[in-house]
Design brief:
The chain is α/β, with parallel strands linked by helices. The protein has 14 helices and eleven strands.
Length: 403
């Protein structure tokens, strides 16, 4: 597989950064995309970040303090952003009084001990002790919204519950040093336009459910939808099959407060209109694709090394012209055009010096949506995935040089 950066100078720049003097010791927080899962799910047999190569632990071995933050795999960007805040910081999820009332779900969710308990530097997370967010797919939307809410808060939530508003919605927290996105669905994706994202999403997740069995106690659930706010927490005595059937039948698949809408170009545009690119944060984006342009049609076709599961979607997205030809190139799940930066926000091609308050585009490389998290290459899942570790460790080295 050709996972080489199109920006020829970039590989050298990233390689040199490993020898640069560290300017910070901020931890890296890995944030998954749509349908992702936590380290304790799928019985620990297969990790979202790395497959059979444990990316988190490999980065730690190389000296990069790294933790993983798992949130609702099918939840909206807002819900996932506030869940990620609670997962990192500790405490109970507060979706906000105004948000919960608007969308008709519970205000409060699960309680977490906090991933900051695992920071090598100690438990501090504040203006003087920041973190780097590294995200895949929908995680790009989640991390930029979390960064915005930490800094700007939410006036709507402050007005709705002035006496008990979540600290997240108070704003004024400059706790994020950088955001890195890989295959980021920053401006949404046309993936769901092919047959209806709700059908595709449910079928993808059903496959996971079927593979890992149909019965067991709640604590044995191999894949957790984390939809407690919608009353969809697995109940005692309920089999996995009963639980999944109840999830499939839920009306949440029609609400806008779900990933199905957030990940559409329309939903992403609505969020990008108010979610700021913060001036004191470094943003980095890697773009990728697995298709090539047809000489006669101008459509995009999947390359031969595209994951077989993704090839039909890569073909469909490569022919779907309702948003214009710019959207045709894709990685089997996300359009390459969507990955660079929020439309209309400041962006610059990375030249070796990172700029705050802009999306530093790190270049394009050939890979599909699963390759970039170590899930798509059978050979690499039978052996140590050196490309994956090398790719993320070089970015981690660059992140350490930021001040």
């Amino acid at each position: 597989m050709r996972k080489t950066l199109r920006a020829g100078l970039l590989a050298g720049l990233l390689g040199l950064s490993a020898f640069a003097q560290a300017a910070n010791t901020d931890p890296i927080v890995l944030v998954h995309g749509f349908a992702g899962w936590g380290r304790d799910e799928l019985y620990g047999l297969y990790l979202h970040w790395g497959g059979t190569t444990d990316l988190q632990e490999e980065l730690k071995k190389l000296g990069y303090d790294t933790v993983t933050a798992a949130s609702g795999p099918t939840s909206s960007t807002w819900d996932r952003a506030v869940e990620t805040y609670a997962v990192i910081n500790g405490g109970c999820v507060d979706y906000g009084a105004a948000h919960a009332a608007k969308h008709g779900h519970a205000r409060f969710g699960r309680c977490y001990a906090g991933e900051r308990q695992h920071f090598a530097r100690g438990t501090q997370w504040d203006d003087q002790h920041k973190v780097h967010l590294v995200a895949h797919s929908q995680g790009a939307q989640v991390t930029k919204m979390l960064t915005h809410l930490l800094e700007e808060g939410s006036q709507e939530e402050r007005a709705a519950s002035p006496n008990d508003v979540s600290p997240l919605f108070q704003g004024g927290k400059h706790w994020i040093r950088s955001v890195t996105t890989v295959s980021g669905a920053i401006n949404g994706t046309t993936f769901g336009k092919l047959t209806g994202f709700n059908v595709l999403a449910k079928e993808l997740l059903k496959g996971v459910a079927a593979f890992f069995g149909s019965s067991g106690a709640p604590e044995d659930l191999p894949y957790d939808f984390k939809l407690d706010q919608w009353g969809l927490k697995k109940q005692a005595g309920e089999t996995n099959k009963q639980y999944w059937d109840r999830v499939w039948a839920s009306p949440i698949w029609q609400t806008k407060d779900i990933a199905l809408y957030t990940l559409s170009p329309e939903g992403a545009a609505e969020e990008n209109a108010w979610v700021k690119t913060e001036p004191d944060v470094y943003y980095f984006s890697f773009t990728n694709g697995t298709t090539f342009k047809g000489f006669l049609t101008g459509n995009q076709y999947p390359a031969l090394d595209t994951n077989l599961l993704l090839s039909p979607f890569a073909l469909g997205m490569g022919w779907y012209r309702n948003y214009g030809s710019s959207w045709l190139e894709n990685d089997g799940v996300v359009n390459t055009y969507s990955m660079k930066a929020p439309f209309g926000h400041p962006v610059a091609n990375f030249n070796g010096t990172a700029q705050k308050g802009k999306w530093n585009h790190m270049g394009f490389f050939h890979a599909d949506h699963l390759d970039v998290i170590g899930a798509g290459d059978l050979l690499n899942n039978l052996t140590y995935n050196s490309w994956l570790v090398n790719f993320y460790s070089k970015q981690a080295a660059l992140l350490k040089t930021l001040n």
